[in-house]
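User: Fold both of these, please.

Assistant: Here is the first one.
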Amino acid sequence: MKKNKSANANPKVKDMSFLDHLEELRWHLIRVVIAVIILGLIAFIFKGFIFDVIIFGPKDANFPTYKIFCKAAQAIGRPDSFCFEELPFKLQSRKMADQFSPHIWTSITAGIVIGFPYLVYEFWKFISPGLHDSERKTARGFIIVASLLFFIGVLFGYYIITPLSINFLGTYTVSSHVLNEFDLGSYISVVRTSVLASGLIFELPIIIYFLTKIGLVTPETLRKYRKISIVLVLLLSAIITPPDVASQVIVAIPILILYEISIYISAAVIAQQKKEERRFKAT
């Protein structure tokens, strides 16, 4: 029987020892860290734009999301929900390093977000030599798709989850005797968590793709546990959003759509694997 050379992985990978793989991974990580540091330094320099425009944007009553939600609330007769002139809370810095430390970590976070395509590229360079030629061709758009999903998730987290969370937590009070004066780090933590969590959640189709490739997930399994997954999605939505039904539904809908897309991706991967097996047997 003839051996299908095009289906073989890179022979150099087979000759590498475990320590060689670790050394290769180390250099990939070093390049990633350098890229994040460089981009973080750039973000550090442009602190005015990063903080005044991006970080503190959802604190402004003129933030686009509030305007849209205000019109929607007026349409259903609940203008008090998102129609306001100013959010009733202030930010404060109570420690010597309370402004410098958030500046550092926000810059690093910005470096990770902006440099995400390069992070994915380095990850792809590390795993691609171990893939078959046909698999590399099939996943040629991996970097573009993974980056696109991540940035869509980041935008969703910034324009949907962040304003919902800030509006709810910033206006919530147990008594009129208590003033809402939040630490700067606490506020930034809400923004950062909402954005990064959404970006990673939107990578679900990519995660399912690789889990299917290594045999840990099948479309049948995803369909079988669909109801359980819906419950988990609702629980996740409840964790990362304010405890009101409307916010949870807004967040749950795109996650459920991504789950359904992941089922089709898993099925496509299985179909491609079976096709490759038939082609290999035929040769």
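And the second sequence with its predicted structure:
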Amino acid sequence: MNVTFNNKVAIVTGAASGIGLACARLLAASGGCVALVDCQPDHLAEATKNVQEKGTARGYELDVTDIRSIASTVSQIRHELGEVDALVCSAGTNIRKPAHEVTEADWDTVLSINTKGLFFCNQAVAIQCMIPRKSGAIVNIASTYGLVGGPKGTTAYCASKGGVVQLTRQEAIDWAPYNIRVNAIAPTYVLTNLTRSLLTDPEFKTWVLDNTPLHRLATVDDVATATLFLVSDAAKMITGVILPVDGGWTAR
């Protein structure tokens, strides 16, 4: 089956780098018009140019923790690009501390981006674009650590991604009457700016590979390909699913 995104509009958050950029690039290359959303203007401008080499794209500066600005940004995207068919929420962060050292500020930083900001992006797009048209697909980028425990230092991150997993399932139920499909992808370790310091440590990388049955890291393109499938018509009967892209990590 030829999976495409022809003549459709997508919003991708966290699109200036890593998984978000890969998703934006593939959606544009597959025929879509992509709104790249990120809080880093310089990186966003560069990423937008990169995606425009593949297809149609425009950049929009937004910090997803600025809840009041989410709805107005979605409205601007609708006005400039057209009704939104798909949303990919990839913005995320982590503060690595063991549970007994996590401060309230640490907790709020991680949860406000990974869970709260994600939810209100989902909600704004659903309210403005998808519920009225009774059509749409949302993909939230979760993590294997939303499904299983992680190594020391991932307490807030695990909580935030576990929240993404349950939000995804509940939104799929709540919005099914409007023909809105909501799914999540749970990647294993992917080499991005968020994980680079870990994965350049030979001992840690060996630990990851030894715990991955396919014995390799995931790539941003592995995640992007799964995302394209889930927002495409090829997945029109799939909702409420958390799809691990993890080389077998959660099957152990």
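Helices lie at 18-29, 41-52, 67-81, 104-133, 155-175, 196-199, 202-210, 220-231.
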